[in-house]
Hints:
Elements: E1 7-11, H1 15-26, E2 31-35, E3 38-42, E4 51-56, E5 69-72, H2 78-84, E6 90-99, E7 103-109, E8 115-120
Parallel strand pairs: 1-4, 5-8
Antiparallel strand pairs: 2-3, 3-4, 6-7, 7-8
Helix pairs in contact: 1-2
Amino acid sequence: MENLITWFEIPAMDFSRAVSFYKAILGLEIKETEVLGTKMGFFPTDGKNVSGAIVQGEDYKPSPDGVITYLNGGNDLQNVLDKVNKSSGKVIVPKTQISPEMGYFGMFIDTEGNKMAVHSIG
């Protein structure tokens, strides 16, 4: 088993708003489509690493109380956190060192009300 996690989905109430938020804070393209009545915005993937999507559908409810997904913050997650408030999200844990070996994390509430996190070594 290479990765315990193989896929994640971030629930959205307002799909366009959520896609715009994640594009802005992560600086990447998100491919939008609809699958079996569910709107999906796919994060880029090389097909070998874990990826996921923003989803809007009947069975998807945003929540700050569920599983927390940690996104890759690149070389310095502060770059992502700096964009969160500007993009209508809210930083709830600033860049915080876990340990010198494990790097840093930060947490935020996205535009849909989901609690999310970012991680980086620097």
